[in-house]
Amino acid sequence: MTDQSIKPAFNLSRFSCPNCGELADQAWFNTYANPITSPAGVPLRIAGTDLERLSRNPQFTPEVREQKVAYWNRVNAGQVFLDRWAPIQSDLFVAGMELSACHNCLQAAIWLGGEMIYPARS
Ligand SMILES: [Zn+2]
């Protein structure tokens, strides 16, 4: 952490990042909901033997496999981050929930009712 420190707050666009600790500009995002359409109707997670299988899947180049495994390792570790995915269109606005994302580390914080709930303050 640098000498300067600004506590994260809902009304600031620059504060000490709760993820990387750097004093950095923060981008704010509204959140929208997109129904999960996986066959099981529940959120998708790839872990354990399925992730090992993915890491050897010859359908993907070694570089793509590495990216996919790195992605699932972050998700499985409980990280919340912004990632490019297929474009969606949704009119289901998630009222009362916003994200802030750090310009330094690109990781996200989740805010409910104006209070940061992720990452958890230690
Ligand atoms: Zn950061």
Feature tags:
binds zinc ion, 2 domains, alpha+beta, 122 residues
Can you describe what's shown?
This protein has 122 residues and is an alpha+beta fold. It has two domains: 1-34 and 88-122, no CATH class; 35-79, no CATH class. Helices cover 19% and strands 28% of the residues. It contains two helices and five strands; from the N terminus they run ββααβββ. A five-stranded antiparallel beta sheet has the order 1-2-3-4-5, with no helix packed on it. A hairpin with a 2-residue loop joins β4 (108-112) and β5 (115-118). It is globular, with a radius of gyration of 17 Å. It starts with 13 loop residues before the first strand and ends with a strand. Zinc ion binds at residues 17, 19-20, 22, 24, 102, 104-105, 107.
Structural class: alpha+beta
Helix-strand topology string: EEHHEEE
Distance between the amino and carboxyl termini:
15 Å
Low-pLDDT parts are none
Count of domains: 2
The neighbouring-strand order within the major sheet is 1-2-3-4-5
Helical stretch tally: 2
**Record field, number of beta strands:** 5
Helix and strand topology:
Layout: E1 14-16, E2 23-33, H1 48-55, H2 62-76, E3 92-102, E4 108-112, E5 115-118
Antiparallel strand pairs: 1-2, 2-3, 3-4, 4-5
Zinc ion is lined by residues 17, 19-20, 22, 24, 102, 104-105, 107.
